[in-house]
Write a structure and sequence with these properties.
Layout (H helix, E strand, L loop, with lengths): L8 E5 L4 H5 L2 H10 L4 E6 L1 H4 L10 E4 L6 H11 L3 E4 L4 H9 L4 E5 L10 E3 L10 H10 L17 H10 L8 E5 L11 H14 L4 E4 L6 H10 L8 E3 L6 H9 L3 E5 L2 H8 L4 E4 L8 H4 L6 E4 L13 H8 L5
Parallel strand pairs: 1-2, 1-4, 2-3, 4-5, 5-6, 7-8, 7-10, 8-9, 10-11, 11-12
Helix pairs in contact: 2-6, 8-9, 8-13
């Protein structure tokens, strides 16, 4: 049993990808609700830290790169007097760290060889993918406290100054009518073929003459965006804007928040759109580890398109299906 009164400082770790971090935020909110007077430290990768800057319920964001070695982590968290730690992404080094720090309550999976290092274990196999990732995360605290059904709310925010700065950077784009297409996934899922997205982009631009299309992604995904741009008919090309490699995560968040529709494979940025409650069209494979059941964005305004069968492949999703989904969001 975890004694609330003995918990003053909490460490939650999620040291993997962007989408994983976003889907851990409801756990942070729920933990703060249970331990209202406690401080929460959130250990993440540096590239995700900008997105959660000044995020409600996170008292201290700590980046793994700043305390990269085991001794550095030990010294840092020893000084913070952590009373409860939650290892969201199973990782031996962190489990061992919790143990050596003699943290009173150490929460983690019960299904790893090193699970004996935790004294508060949760017995769920995520590989079965029968629940949403956010639910698996919430169960790490929900198994020990019955606080009723948790709310999956998000508390992202940005200033008007940040919005104006991005609008200036993009030549007034933020104030126009646009949709975002995020064509890559960084290898986290199976992608819709770029040819299908190019076909859709042409169809969209032909049907919606007042709208623009923005392509987003990381610098290594530049080639994908270029293929789409080069496939757009000349008469529409002035309404397609390639921002791959140009935006940091906060800028992407602001751009997404002011968009009319976010279209994407299953990857981190689609969860930004989900957390913001945006209109989303997501392309998902049917295989359980990558399926919508576990990785669907948390926006009620989401349409998921997927192959009818595993053998059909992502290429079976056509521009006709995508346009049909678009019309449910944009008249």
């Amino acid at each position: 049993m975890i004694d609330k009164d003995k918990v003053k400082n909490i460490l939650i770790t999620r040291t993997d990808r962007l989408g994983d971090v976003i889907l851990t935020l409801p756990l942070i909110n729920e933990t703060k609700k249970i331990f209202r007077n406690s401080k929460i430290f959130f250990l993440v990768k540096e590239y995700t830290s900008g997105l959660i800057e000044d995020y409600r319920d996170i008292d201290y964001t700590v980046t793994e790169e700043n305390i990269s070695t085991f001794p550095e982590k030990y010294r840092y968290f020893k000084n913070k007097k952590i009373d409860l730690a939650i290892n969201v992404k199973p990782e031996f080094s962190l489990a061992f760290l919790f143990f050596l720090l003699r943290i009173k309550y150490r929460i983690g999976t019960g299904y790893r060889w090193y699970s004996f290092l935790y004294n508060c274990r949760v017995y769920e196999h995520r590989k079965d993918s029968v629940k949403h990732e956010s639910d698996y995360n919430l169960n790490l605290i929900g198994n020990f406290f019955d606080e009723g059904k948790p709310e999956k709310k998000f508390y992202f925010g940005y200033t008007e100054e940040e919005k104006i700065k991005l609008n200036d950077k993009t030549g007034g784009m933020v104030e126009s009518k646009y949709i975002i297409i995020h064509p890559g996934s960084g290898g986290s899922a199976k992608d819709l073929p770029v040819e299908n997205l190019a076909d859709f982009t042409n169809e969209f631009l032909k049907s919606y003459s007042e709208h623009k299309v923005i392509l987003t992604g990381t610098e290594p995904e530049k080639d994908i965006a270029c293929k789409i741009v080069n496939s757009v008919y000349e008469e529409h090309r002035n309404r397609v804007f390639d921002y791959t490699g140009m935006l940091n995560l906060r800028e992407l968040m602001i751009l997404t928040d002011n968009s009319m529709l976010f279209i994407s494979n299953s990857t981190g940025p689609v969860h930004i759109a989900g957390a913001l409650g945006k209109n989303i069209i997501g392309f998902y494979p049917v295989e359980a580890p990558m399926s919508e059941a576990r990785w669907k964005p948390l926006s009620v305004n989401t349409i998921i398109l997927k192959p009818l069968t595993e053998n059909a492949g992502m290429g079976s999703i056509t521009k006709v299906e995508i346009m049909k989904a678009v019309k449910k969001f944009i008249s």
